[in-house]
């Protein structure tokens, strides 16, 4: 919502583009290898991921522009690797604000300062703040430049019907209704997913009580990019407030609503202003401010039981709704895309069998359940759901004023990448390793030559340490890259490697298998298992 | 106690308070403190914790 006198897209700092529906219409009913429903951040990233695998897609979006309001603002380190892989990173790095630190206050006194893991050797900061409309704009710019991506704006998908080897999509745009066939569909149509409803599927899980108002204000405010959490502050006794810095002098203020406060009342402009002003007074901001946008948000942990329904895959908010604490909404969706994107790409390129696609649900639903577990902990601390949690939370906060160990309970546990341990395409670990990334986890990214290892990954990558097997012995297959890494390097240390150690890294940067003493045959068998027999293994 | 164990303890207490009838909350918490005080095994330490925990209850 926006202040009186301003329309939904009248932002103080962002110009929303207007996109017409398709004008060149001769080809609209032609078959497509992949149709993507929704041009939100997840749908656009999916199109770019497929394009990076050489796969063409058609994106259908019912609106004429980007999502209103800044919504998701925290992008995690792992998501920057995804943006890098799809060639969209540059504008994100230029515009966003990187950060590592959070401070938690109780009744105005600091009880915790946490730092997310970071060092000079890391390629990216643990977290970046950027408004969602910029996220969508930068993704759109990259997608618009790709000859493999066709975005159809003002085009609502109204029906999906199974057909032989494909799905027939019915589309309605300002000029006409039409239908076309796609081999595969990615449903990136958001939390209210019409596609999910068309398939008769329902999200399962819990709705939490805690409701927050999120308000963005523009102000000249001198505080570094540090997440501030205020418990029981003067401005909202008994409640919780979060303050985040965004680019363009925009600040995000989240404050918890009391049980008695109705959402209708709380989202009236005067109410929002009154509450925002109280928060600003509390954080010592004396200058003026402009109100940009606000909304209400509640914490839910809801997910589909299966992210796949025939030839349709659910990605992002259509598959799961997660609490905002710990910034998992968007980041979790981008990780879905990275996962299904390369798998579908490799199937469509004829490099992998369809069985590979069966690993999408166990890997990504597992990740979502893990997010639920962590997010539920933070949610219980932010908005205690019952008397017991309330008493303990208040006791911990009070104790934290003198005992730092109690303050640690307030750590929001920002999202870290999930390990695909129970996946049909994760191979058993080699017990000879004592450290380094195990199969299923995200590859380490140590400095290498002038840059980082991640900049050299492409397709499946074999890391070969010392004088181990080289190209020729290993790159027998299209899409496999071999990277030789010397001993006595940051790389060898990060991977607990010795002469002859091999790692097999997937296109989504997760480790598929590793051998302390590897042979080309072992790598070949592992790849065959992943790409050809994965379906049979389930 | 590791920080994970501390958190598990915190959560178990929250669940215990929710599980018992509300009229017994205070007695339950006092009983738990007596048991923990005994486990500490040092009278002075236990008394010092009482003094510590009386602080910061009311808003200043
Ligand atoms: C008010 C609000 C605040 C939020 N705050 C945060 C936050 O602070 N942190 C965080 O991490 N996350 C936050 N989120 C969540 C975050 O915005 C989402 O996780 C993210 O937008 C998910 O992206 P998506 O692409 O899956 O879905 P969406 O961004 O919802 O995109 C779905 C797209 O599909 C389109 N669509 C729907 N139906 C059809 C159809 N039938 N045909 C064609 N197109 C269709 C929609 O128009 C939309 O553009 C917030 C969400 C909301 C609503």
Automatic annotation (TrEMBL), chain A:
Residues annotated as transmembrane: none
Annotated ranges, domain FAD-binding: 32-368
Record GO biological process: 3-(3-hydroxy)phenylpropionate catabolic process
Swiss-Prot/TrEMBL keywords: Monooxygenase, Oxidoreductase
Gene3D superfamilies (alphabetical): 3.30.70.2450, 3.40.30.120, FAD/NAD(P)-binding domain
Region (Disordered): 430-450
GO molecular-function term, one example from the UniProt record: 3-(3-hydroxyphenyl)propionate hydroxylase activity
Record Pfam families: FAD_binding_3
PANTHER family xref list: 3-(3-HYDROXY-PHENYL)PROPIONATE/3-HYDROXYCINNAMIC ACID HYDROXYLASE, FAD-BINDING MONOOXYGENASE
The protein's name in its UniProt record: Monooxygenase
Organism: Roseibium aggregatum
UniProtKB/TrEMBL annotation, chain B:
Name of protein: DUF2783 domain-containing protein
